[in-house]
Structure to design on (459 residues):
């Protein structure tokens, strides 16, 4: 019998990785606008003007894929129950070694919060990005406020991305498999998402 | 270097526009084709080829008609919104005399300065690069007067030590526009009337969000990023990852 269980569809995986590539393009093309310290990052794109163009294209891709990914999982990510409360109370068991896992659905409470934060951030970055697309087009105060908000949500999303990447790779061995080729180990599912495992395997853990 | 400035005495201006012409000559700027808009004011706005212009404020009509003239240009703010928002260090910069110069080679065509300026001054030329009055920093550095000041026949335009110009204007009983605003303008108006009479903002300012971005979010953001990376590494070596037990894939309910 297989040791693996399907977690993400090919659609989920492709959308996620297109989003991830767009994210890194956005980071490296946008840092030069964020602060003088990072101005030389524009060299990756052949110059500032090309970098800004790349930022605009990647921004559209990022917004579209963010919306697609959100709706692909909205049914699970927008639903919280009492186990999620316990999970958040215990900080997901990340503060101490070897604790008992709190039963979770397909996504744990932290992942659900990250999904909701991501869509909010993507929409805010998209809307403010639209305002500053041509900085001379709209009201001065609105444009300056949008530049500030764009920078703020970039910083927040960047910090979220660091935590996301850590927890999805070395922080929780076996997690990345689901997003890389679609399947996770059954032992992974029993540990991290026992309620989901029961549901899809139709069995008690 | 003592801080230099322009003092523009509005009451002395006769709208001869020698300043406009001299500026175009020194900076080798072409003429702009214009249309008759029913006013002697010409052109209506600063353009990429027009770094300073005489603004006509026309008030009343018939017997009560009144013309107010003044020289409009970059006011070389002490705390310049354009420099603050410019992503490319040195594309807009402050000269030793306190003027705001620009370097088209470093301009990245982002248009942030157009939006960052409280006085709607910077313009973009046909190559999509920033232009505006640079205070003739080249002439000033060589000890000369800016071209517009040199050409002004009525001494409406003056250029020199900022403190001296302020003292002179005050001794003449003038109201000074821009002595304190925005870190002190380096092009001030000595006026008889109020800023409103000249359609100037009473309290020109830069949106607070610029400072929030550049002075708060930027440093805290860099700290936040490396803090997150550090926290993740610390977590890995202290609490450690949630390891899976390798040998129990098919146990417990299979």
């Amino acid at each position: 019998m297989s040791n693996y269980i399907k977690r993400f569809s090919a659609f989920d995986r492709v959308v996620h990785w297109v989003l991830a590539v767009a994210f890194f393009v956005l980071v490296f093309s946008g840092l030069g606008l964020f602060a003088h310290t990072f101005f030389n990052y524009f060299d990756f794109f052949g110059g500032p003007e090309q970098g800004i163009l790349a930022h605009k294209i990647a921004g559209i891709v990022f917004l579209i894929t963010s919306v697609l990914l959100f709706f692909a999982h909205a049914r699970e990510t927008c639903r919280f129950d009492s186990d999620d409360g316990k999970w958040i109370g215990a900080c997901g068991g990340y503060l101490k070694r070897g604790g008992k896992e709190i039963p979770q659905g397909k996504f744990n409470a932290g992942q659900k919060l990250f999904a909701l934060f991501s869509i909010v951030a993507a929409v805010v970055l998209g809307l403010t990005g639209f305002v500053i697309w041509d900085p001379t087009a709209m009201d001065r105060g609105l444009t300056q406020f949008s530049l500030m908000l764009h920078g703020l949500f970039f910083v927040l999303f960047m910090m979220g991305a660091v935590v996301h990447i850590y927890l999805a790779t070395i922080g929780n061995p076996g997690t990345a498999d689901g997003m890389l080729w679609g399947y996770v180990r059954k032992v992974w599912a029993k540990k991290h998402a026992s309620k989901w495992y029961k549901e899809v395997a139709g069995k008690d853990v | 270097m003592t801080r230099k400035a322009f003092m523009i005495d509005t009451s002395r201006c006769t709208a001869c526009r020698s300043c406009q012409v001299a500026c175009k000559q020194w900076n080798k700027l072409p003429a702009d084709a214009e249309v008759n808009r029913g006013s002697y004011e010409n052109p209506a706005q600063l353009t990429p080829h027009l770094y300073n212009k005489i603004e006509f404020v026309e008030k009343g009509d018939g017997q009560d008609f009144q013309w107010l003239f003044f020289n409009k240009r970059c006011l070389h703010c002490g705390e310049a919104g354009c420099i603050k928002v410019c992503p490319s260090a040195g594309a807009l910069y402050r000269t030793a005399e306190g003027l705001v110069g620009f370097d088209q080679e470093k301009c990245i065509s982002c248009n942030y300065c157009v939006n960052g300026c409280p006085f709607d001054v910077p313009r973009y030329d046909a190559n999509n690069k920033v232009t505006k009055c640079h205070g003739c920093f080249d002439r000033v550095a060589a000890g000369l007067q800016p071209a517009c000041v040199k050409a002004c026949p009525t001494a409406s335009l003056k250029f020199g030590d900022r403190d001296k110009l302020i003292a002179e204007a005050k001794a003449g009983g003038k109201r000074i526009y821009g002595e304190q605003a925005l870190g002190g303008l380096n092009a001030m108006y000595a006026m008889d009337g109020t800023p409103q009479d000249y359609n100037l903002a009473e309290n020109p300012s830069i949106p607070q969000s610029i400072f929030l971005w550049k002075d708060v979010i930027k440093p805290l953001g860099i700290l936040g990023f490396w803090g997150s990376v550090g926290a993740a590494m610390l977590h890995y070596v202290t609490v450690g990852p949630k390891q899976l037990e390798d040998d129990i894939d098919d146990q417990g309910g299979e």
